[in-house]
Amino acid sequence: MNNPADNAPVQKAGATEESRTSLTALLTDLSFWADWASVVGLVGLVIVFGIAQPIFLSVANLQALLLAAAILVVLATGQTFVVATSGIDLSLAAAVMLGAIVLGLVHAAGWGIFLACVLAVAATSAVGLLNGVLITVGKIPDFVVTLGTLSAITGLGLILSGGEPTMVGSPFLLKLTSGSFGPFGYPVWVAAGVVLAAHVALFHTRFGVHLLATGGQAESAHSLGIRTNRIKIAAYTISGFCAGIASLLLVARIGSAEPLINTSLLLNSVAAVVLGGVSLFGGRASILGPAIGALMLTALVNGLTLLSVSAFYQPLAVGAIVVLAALIMRYQR
Length: 333
Known about the structure:
Layout: H1 4-27, H2 30-52, H3 59-84, H4 92-108, H5 113-136, H6 142-161, E1 166-167, H7 171-178, E2 180-181, E3 184-185, H8 186-203, H9 206-216, H10 218-223, H11 228-254, E4 256-257, H12 263-275, H13 288-306, H14 314-332
Antiparallel strand pairs: 1-4, 2-3
C-alpha cells in the first residue's frame, strides 16, 4: 500500500515546475508587457534612480516630479481618446500654445482671469472640433489634417502675439501653481480630476462603448447604428479641451504666455499613450496606463537630470523606450 507521504515530494516538484512554467509564459507574453509596460518601467526607473541618486526619492523631488508631470498627464489623457479611434492629434502642442496666447491677450486686455481661462479652453476645444470635422466630413486623413492645423495654429499664434511673450500676473494662477491640498499641489489634483473624469467617460458611459467600437471597426460600428463621425468629432474636441487645461497649467507654471511651440509635449503625449498600452490601431484603450506612462517619462527626464546626463541624450532615451513599446504592441496585435 502506497504511503501518501511518499507522493508529497513528487507533487511538490510538479507544482514547482508548473509555477516556473507559468512564470516563464507570463514573462514571454507580449500582452503582459504591452499592458504593464508603463508600470514596470516606472518601478524600474524609481529603483535605478533611487539607488544611483538618493535625492531622487526625496519628498521634495517627488512632489516636483508630480507637478512637472501634471501637464503631460492631461495631454496624454486627451490624446488617448483620439488614438482609441485609431487616429492621432499632431496639433496638441500648437493648441496649447494658442490657449496660452489667448489667455495672455484676454487677461492683458483687462477682461479678468476667469474669462481669459474660459476663452483659452474654448479656443483649444474649437481647434479639436475643427480637426474632427475636417477628418470626418472632409474625408481627409487625420495625419494630414492635424499636421496642417499644427502649422496653421502656430502661425495664428505668432500673428496674435506678434511673436512676443505676454506676462500674466494673476493671483489665481499663482495660487494654482504654488498652492497645495494635502501633500500634492493643485496641478496634480487637476490632472487627477481629468484622469478620473476621462476614465468614467470611457468605461462607464455609452459614449465610451461607442468610441471603442468606432476605433475597433468603424464600418461595423456604423452598421450597428453608432454615429461614428460624431464620435470621432467628440474625441478630437476632448483632445482640444485637454490642451486648453494644459495651457492653463503651463501659463500658471511659467507666469507668461509664450508664443513658442513645445514639440516635446506632442511627442511625449503620444509616447505616454503607447507606453500606457493603448492600441495605435484603435479599439483598445486605458486611461490610467497613459497617466502612468506620463509619470514614467517625467521620471526618466528628472532622473537623468539629477545624474547630470546631458539634455541631448534625454530625447534619445525617450525615443528608444517608445519604439520598444510600439514594437511590443505591434507583435501583440
